[in-house]
Amino acid sequence: MQPVKINGIDYTFSTGKHNQLQKAVIEEFAPRFAPFSACLYVGDTTKKDLVKDVKKLKSLGFEITLHDKLPDVVLYREDKDWIYFIECVTSVGPVNPKRIIEITEMTSNVKSGKIFVTAFLDMNTAKKFIQDIAWETEIWVAESPEHMIHMNGDKFLGPR
């Protein structure tokens, strides 16, 4: 088991690369690129809805049904009113154009700024998916946590 503190509460992720990456997103990405954010959703490979703040998600305009597939990690930064949709990729599932459409449709009533991030454990894995990642999104690699790759030429991290 992998201990992780989410919103000030101790949890454990089951073992595995995907959960290792989710832990890195919460412990390394969030403090650097989403400071003071709250985790509204994160699943575990064995417990899908490990953290799911339904009340806050609904207050932001989410209409969540059983058929919706939230990204692996959803963070909310209240001071900027930004929501970070983060896909943790170890073998499948980067933020590609199709995924942007799915998330956008699922969050059509959400007025907060939307930031899309694909996270990887290492650059070798990122290289396998680079051609699939949507423009105007971000790439974060856990092995170099202080850097991001911006798939957006005119600005850095911010809503679409």
Please count the helical segments.
4
How would you sum up the global shape? globular
Give the mean pLDDT. 91
Helix content: 25-40%
Total number of beta strands:
9
Structural class: alpha+beta
Classified in CATH, the superfamily is BsuBI/PstI restriction endonuclease, C-terminal domain
Architecture, according to CATH?
3-Layer(aba) Sandwich
Report the uncertain regions: none
Question: How much of the sequence is in beta strands?
Answer: 25-35%
Total number of domains: 1
Q: How are the strands of the biggest sheet laid out side by side?
A: 4-3-5-6-7-8-9
Distance between the termini: 36 Å
Write the H/E string, N to C: EEHEEHEEHEHEE
**Named CATH topology:** Trna Endonuclease, Chain: A, domain 1
Biggest sheet layout: 7 strands, mixed
Radius of gyration: 14 Å
Specify the CATH class.
Alpha Beta
What do you see in this structure?
This protein is of the alpha+beta class and 160 residues long. It has one domain: BsuBI/PstI restriction endonuclease, C-terminal domain (Trna Endonuclease, Chain: A, domain 1). 25% of the residues lie in helices and 28% in strands. The strands form 2 sheets. Strands 4-3-5-6-7-8-9 form a 7-stranded mixed β-sheet. The model has no long low-confidence stretch (mean pLDDT 91).
